What we know:
Blueprint: H1 5-19, E1 27-31, E2 39-42, E3 57-61, H2 68-87, H3 97-106, H4 118-127, E4 130-134, E5 140-143, H5 148-154, E6 171-176, E7 182-184
Amino acid sequence: MTHTIQDIRDEYRRLDRIMGIDSTDVEIQISNRAGKQLGCFRAPNPRALRPSSDPLCIRISASVLDDDEAFFDTIRHEYAHMAVFKLYPGEQHQHDGVWKDICRRIGCVPKSKSAMPEEREREWQNSAKYWIHCTRCGTDSYYHRAGKCVQYMLMGRGSRLRCGKCGGSKLELYVRESPKGNRMAD
């Protein structure tokens, strides 16, 4: 069964009754671009110099719409972020104890990332245009777009970056030029 935005709204109404909040002001989007990130909750930055008029938004990857378990866990995960934002305005909780307590109350696994199936993980890695390799511990991080980390490496400012696993600063950037071969960027 392919789930829809209406299925998300129905589940959020049920969770609203449990949590005693109202999520009808939250914009819900389905993303066809999201690959590795299954969901995202976007709220205004409480430390911004001027208040934002952007609506609260939950974005769900289209990749979870056909998998009941991944779908419900993802939408509940993002709902928990929204609930924390509404119940504790101005506070930053990310994936801490407050967020985990709300996850447990609404029936969601309280972890920051869902495990990606091995086959899908391999596809993700093989289709990445960029990857950064830590020569200290051997960890590879894959990127499909040239975000901040990749841009730092391309500009020769990679010494500002640290490996998320070991904290090492000896990183190498690889750029996939064609399906046949890879080259290491300078």
